[in-house]
Predict the structure.
Amino acid sequence: MIVQLGSTVRISCPVYGSPRSLVSWTKDSDTVHLGWQRFHLQRAGASLYVKDIRPTDAGRYTCTATNGFGTATVTIDLHVVRELLLSSLRSALRKLFHSFADVYA
């Protein structure tokens, strides 16, 4: 997942279970605590929100969902870029798309 510096991001944990799973989050193997100022959970932990994204927020986020039938984990790599880099990436992708469209037209 690529996010822009200073933005707010929602990282979803796409796991579902019955009975409802207990969800926990880690960032680079450190437990995400509700006391972390810019981090908060919604939907019983299924979504992790991070406000005012900083370069130090980049890393590997893992959600772990556990219920009486087992455990599932999902890992999301978060990359933080400046706006200029994000705009450049969009521009490069547009050019690439148009070059493919020209070749296959």
About this structure: Residues 65 and 71 are 6 Å apart (CA to CA). The chain has one domain: 2-103. The mean pLDDT is 84.
